[in-house]
Amino acid sequence: MFDDTSLLVYTLFYMIVSACFVLRTTEFVSNGITVENLLEIVIDKEYHNVILHHIKRTSYSIIVHSCLPLVYLLGTLLINNNEKAFVSVYFYELIFLALLPIIGSLSVVSKWKSNNWANHPLSIILSRYNPVDWTIVAKNISTEYQCLQKLTLSYGTINRTVVTQNWIISIKLYMVYVSKKSESSFLVFSSDIHNSTPDGTPDSIQFINIQVIPIRSRIKWFFVRIRSEDFKTLEEHIGHPIQIADNVKLQRSRTERFIEVFRDQVSQNPIYKDYSSAELAEDVCAGCLVNPPDVKLTKCCEDSNDVPNCTSCQCRPMWCVDCMAKWYESRQPQNDTTIWLSSKCTCPLCRQMFCILDVCPLENSDLAKTN
């Protein structure tokens, strides 16, 4: 009934499925085909106890992944009927080889699990901060992890970087690194640029690798990988500047590049004189709450028969040009940046239609001075 072709198909299919399972592809993760979901009975929920969750996740991942060769060989018993096939001739030898990684992983994990997981690499890192009881540090980190103010940056479905109030956590497939923010230095040591983004939008994206160097002794350095556009956000959550190596040049994000083009166009538009920047000196932008309002939406473009026409906005100036640019960008189709400047948007408050030609700088504003 079965022949060599079926064994070949089974082998290719098993390799693809195993690779997707180990590498945690988006399709497998979205359908819950992960170690932590399959073993949710023994693995704590991440939100409730992030440290214990990842201690068990990394441990059981090593065991489960080491069993994949053995599962493959057992599957050939159902698929292969050719006694001359390689897996049939050397079946018992292959079984012995497949058992070796399982035995090795079980011995390693059993050592980690002894003394209430005190020998796990993550527990050893935490013990550097409290040699008496590492679980106290683990509880503090778990408490901070439950706060909504934490920052989470993902690189694919395997690696994540989490920044809480006092800690930075680098989550990887088989290991989790932890360091206290106030006792660490940060260095951007390399970068790489890709021509397409993970979601398929036609734009280049830069990834940067940041080395986290704990000051406390006997804690190994590690690195995190993030998008360059998340650099400022990460720096803000860390609370002190991140050094950048001389050979690394950060690429500006798409939003930053668009803001620059938006500002250049707005500076060329007619100046709005019914309000001046002096009259709004005590006001702040409704978006960033930092900069003073410096633009007003008023109809300056010509009507067209092909698209909905713009209308005048009666709202008081409440936005700075940068926040207006961000709002304008957020209302555009993200997969086609070529039509942004010729597209339209609605006022954040009254929803009146406007285009980029209708964004006018206020009189005496810094933006108007470049007009």
Automatic annotation (TrEMBL):
<dbReference type="GO" id="GO:0016020">
    <property type="term" value="C:membrane"/>
</dbReference>
<dbReference type="GO" id="GO:0061630">
    <property type="term" value="F:ubiquitin protein ligase activity"/>
</dbReference>
<keyword id="KW-0472">Membrane</keyword>
<dbReference type="Pfam" id="PF10272">
    <property type="entry name" value="Tmpp129"/>
</dbReference>
<keyword id="KW-0812">Transmembrane</keyword>
<feature type="transmembrane region" description="Helical">
    <location>
        <begin position="6"/>
        <end position="23"/>
    </location>
</feature>
<dbReference type="GO" id="GO:0005783">
    <property type="term" value="C:endoplasmic reticulum"/>
</dbReference>
<dbReference type="InterPro" id="IPR018801">
    <property type="entry name" value="TM129"/>
</dbReference>
<feature type="transmembrane region" description="Helical">
    <location>
        <begin position="60"/>
        <end position="79"/>
    </location>
</feature>
<keyword id="KW-1133">Transmembrane helix</keyword>
<protein>
    <submittedName>
        <fullName>Uncharacterized protein</fullName>
    </submittedName>
</protein>
<dbReference type="GO" id="GO:0016567">
    <property type="term" value="P:protein ubiquitination"/>
</dbReference>
<comment type="similarity">
    <text>Belongs to the TMEM129 family.</text>
</comment>
<feature type="transmembrane region" description="Helical">
    <location>
        <begin position="85"/>
        <end position="109"/>
    </location>
</feature>
